[in-house]
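User: I'm new to structure prediction. If I give you an amino acid sequence, what do you actually give back? Let's try with this one:
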Amino acid sequence: MKRGAWRVAFIALAALAPFLPMLVRGEVPDFRDHRDYFVPMREATAGALRGLELPLWNSLSGSGEPWLANPQTGVFYPPAWLMALLPFKTGYAIFLALHLAIAGIGWRRLMLRWTGDGVATLSACALLLSGPILSLLELSTVLATLAWIPLLLAFALEPRASGSIVRDAVTIALCFLGGEPLLAAVGALLYASARLARERRASLRPVSLVAALAFLLTAAQLLPFVESLQGSDRANGLDRASALAQSMAPLDWLRIPLSPFAPGAASVTLTSQRFLPSLYVVPVIALLPIVLPLLWRRERVPRRACGGWLILFAVSAFISAGSSLAVTERVYLMLGLEVNRYPVKFALFGVLALVALGTICLDRLLECTKEEAPWGAAVIAIAALLPLLLAFGARWNAALLLGAWVVAIAVVVVAKPTRAWALPLLALAVCADSMHSSQFLLKSQPLPLSVMPHDSLLSRERKVVRLEQLDRRSGAVASSASRGAWLGGYLNLRNSQYDAMTAAPVIDARYERLLDYALARPRIDILDFLGAGYLLTTRRIDVPGYREIGATDGVRVYERAAALSPVTIWENHVSQGDRAAAFESLFSESWSAAKQIVVTGNAPARPSDAVDGTVGRTRVVATTWSSLRADVESPRGGVAVVSQRDAPGWSVAVDGAEAQPLLVDGLFRGVAVPVGRHTVEWRYAPRSLAIGALLSVTGVAIAVITIFRRRRRKSA
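Assistant: Good question. You get back a string of structure tokens that encode the predicted 3D arrangement of the chain. For your 716 residues, that looks like this:
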């Protein structure tokens, strides 16, 4: 095996190492968002794909939501298919390890432009096992997008080769399909900037072709995603508090070389944001940029490259500061970035820049003789010595870390050997120290069982709502309660429990407004119409019709028997041609959702003696990822209403014959049904997906033809 292949294998092993214990034990990561968000979300998607079903619509959360349109579900992301092809526990861990390996291998390829292979490999290990990158394990969509960006930048800076358009477009497409569209857009912008800086006008045509092909390849995901943004809470930007939450104050960058397990670290580390629970990068990399001015003056560094990394670091640190600086807040909002949550995401690019600068400095210092840079050995020694000193206070495996760093310092600083065997020792020390300092990010548990908190108390036909946000303002009990007790995130998917709320990153703005209004007033009639039969709260409430039926971890469960079933039939309705006006009528105190509905469309004639409330009988027969079928019995004819949100792409049939969909209360789906018993079936097939799929197939065909023609030219 060639030396380069050995180093790639070493990076892959370093990426797999954090997951070996959980793979052996058959567990999944359990830190923060893993358990209640990403694990159930990935498991639900994998289950659908394993059953050869395209997961288009999630009927269990948020009174229905487009599932495939959410890039975080990864329906079209090939690495995510591992969780469907392998046992889920194994596939989930391998998925995370694979992206650490992709990030490390791409980073090594990028660093080879300015450093030797040994230093590039060491830098890759330091990056993929750093606190910021391992923090992304619980934010797997961010990790899946960021992992491809080093490789994308490496491609941008390499000499042009025939066929590179397909390669680069596929990499950009994988960035987007990973699940974080904004970070993917930043990565694509960095790619274009790097090519324009390197090739100037000559890059305009190939960059345009790359962008066009990337668009085609992602269209099946991109077009439904764009459609889901229309009318969502992101369409006009989030409110300032939500958009600027989790900003990274400039002083937080001082946390970079300080291990979370250092003695006294809790008293000196800064906590302006918790999105990235660890910012630790080993000091031998993080501290070396301080010598950049000296190396710059001696012309020992690639100035143009270092200048680019410095600009990226400055812009990243400025934008990620968010609400911590008044000027940054104004610029953030002026750029329209309030569509994004958590400005600290942009700090990830600053971390890449800092590691790149440290890597270049390390490479140059190792090349310096004592006469050229007498301070070079001292700087490396101090940077390597810091983890050794901190290891005295470590709670886990301090002896291993201590020994590793003693050997590394002795070899690299004192013995001054060749790189061939000095750098591998230093790389082992870097890996040991990084994994030790991030051990709290690697907690694992057996896959949660199907029995969830409150499971025995809840009926599958009634929805759950929670007063978590309101309760947090009034007491500490709500904050201390576990996410499981709140049935938070997507835990409802594990036991097929309907949830009126959702953890989706994009939410229908009208529905969110209605639900907030109904909970805050409260408007019990609206909650009944939604089918919200269970209320979770840490407070004791005394509302007629609600009774406490149990509690877990301080979270009480209240049941309301009057909540309506998922499908209902109404005679008493008011016709309203304008959707917005129909929706606004819900907020009138004189109108009651318990008595009548507001219908937009060609509604049936209303009986002169129409009965208030629901009539007839209904039963949901089957629900899939793209349909809902119900049996209904109407005594005099009326409107059958399903308590799920409407969205472009829904159609309905009554007894197999296509019928005209009706919009109920400006939000929900309905259809006119005649007298008697009928089968009503709603089907979801968004046009945006059909168009996007056609474009993506075209993109794949273009890519295959381009590759085939390139190979034919080479063989000719």
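You can read the tokens as a compact description of the fold. Here is one thing that stands out. Residues 182 and 340 are 8 Å apart (CA to CA).
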